[in-house]
Amino acid sequence: MGVLPQAADSKREQFRQYLEKSGVLDMLTKVLVALYEEPEKPDSALDFLKHHLGASAPENPEIEALRLEVAEVKEKYEAVLEENLKLKNKLAQYEQPQDEKHGE
Length: 104
What we know:
- By secondary structure, this protein is mainly α.
- It has helices at about 5-20, 25-35, 45-55, 60-104.
């Protein structure tokens, strides 16, 4: 029976090292410190943790608005790239005959 507690301790230590390397322990510590330092403790400590870890259920409306704006800007950017390519192709058609004239 003496081997089992050591194996369990070893597994725990490996898991602790894994959490430490991945930044989980640091993140949890920061959030728990923030909760500790909160002058008015929230009704739900779990909601506080979820919110501060970024796992809150309802998404911030500002973030959704920014996502929509980014999507619009990407769409406009793609349209401008397409228009630019078309204009370059048109310009190339007019430039080629002039280059041929200079070669003659």
